Amino acid sequence: MSVLNVHEAITRAHREQWGRVVAALTRRFGDLDIAEEAAAEAFATAVDRWPGDGVPPNLGAWLTTTATRKAIDRIRRENKRDDKQKEARMLYEDVPEPPGAIDDERLRLIFICCHPALAMETRVALTLRMVGGLTVPEIARAFLVQETAMGQRITRAKAKIKAARIPYRVPSAADLPARVSSVLAVLFLVFNEGYLATGPDTDPVRHDLTAEAIRLTRLVRALMPDDGEAAGLLALMLLIEARRTARVSASGELVTLGEQDRGAWDAALIAEGHRLVRERLAAGVAPGRYQILAAINAVHTSAHDVRDTDWSQVVALYDQLVRIDPSPIVALNRAVAVAELDGPEVALAAVNRLDSALAGYHAYHATLADLLRRLGRSQKSRAAYDKAIELAGNTAEAAYLIRRRDQLR
């Protein structure tokens, strides 16, 4: 196998196996630092050995076994544990855990990291790192904060878990409701990173992340069938995933919703997403954030042509969303819909009010550039495109923005 193929195998293994390896080591050793560092050492060992030895047939088993040995070596070196009998049992026995509410090991770790003792944003950031395998820069971009600040937040979270001696046990059914909101937030961010990947050396769309996020969300919904937001998030993911193959052109450029080949959308995923949305509407319960976002996407995927989109319904749904989530990003997305309903001038006034909150967000500048272009203000539009291109982390999106900028007179 060539060096290039080995590199691709390692990259694929990191995407697919990181969370599983960390979850297995966390369950066994009860320490996030040990689990993360041992997993990292296992992948470093793979980089050294696989080019010469060949890629093992079972990547997950090889990585987990290697990481376990690395963790045992570290514990032996530290040699700071008082209970030697307990240490020996932990090192040499792989005692199965008692059954709990969650069978999937990776999902179990998500619920463990989303402990109520941690602040919500900290839970999400920690879980994205430990389970999703996202890098600190990727997580920082998702939260619109500096990389150093995000790194410190994750480090403090692991230290707090260790100091508070938060148990690494399978959450009981009674624990799930208090943690489900942050678990859903984690899964949504993992999905978003896959749907519009921000890493400089990654594919613009990472199907491994979107598929895993959908799989885990299905498990959450099976655990909590009456939770409206779990159903709403699953519907939202399915309706977005249905458009995945139409989102990037053959030349590697982002294809916007209005320009996509709707015949290439996955009809089965759309039908399932619509069914979930209808079920939640029939429940007669006030919808949460994910349910409203799913309803918005249901409107988009119901239109056979972009010109058939019911923009008044989309704006009305955003009005409902703003009342429960008055974030600047929601306001920005609402403005995009307003531009279709009331025109770019009205939308531009709304977007301009978001400048201080979203100055470092590429989508803000991309939206501003498009509205200015539609109003014939080419010079200002070009400057906004330049800023959006500078901030964009996704290669396909950057290519689209460059073409749109270069079309300006």
Automatic annotation (TrEMBL):
Q: Which GO terms describe its molecular function?
A: DNA binding; sigma factor activity
GO BP annotation list: DNA-templated transcription initiation
In terms of superkingdom, the source organism counts as: Bacteria
Q: Give the RNA polymerase sigma-70 region domain ranges.
A: 20-80
Question: What is an example of a Pfam family matching this protein?
Answer: Sigma70_r4_2
Looking at the record, the residues that make up the RNA polymerase sigma factor 70 region 4 type domain are 110-161
The keyword rRNA processing belongs to this UniProt entry's keyword annotation: no
Alphabetical keyword list: Sigma factor, Transcription, Transcription regulation
Q: Which residues form the DUF6596 domain?
A: 179-279
Q: Which family does it belong to?
A: Belongs to the sigma-70 factor family. ECF subfamily.
| Protein name in the entry | RNA polymerase sigma-70 factor, ECF subfamily
Organism, scientific name: Micromonospora phaseoli
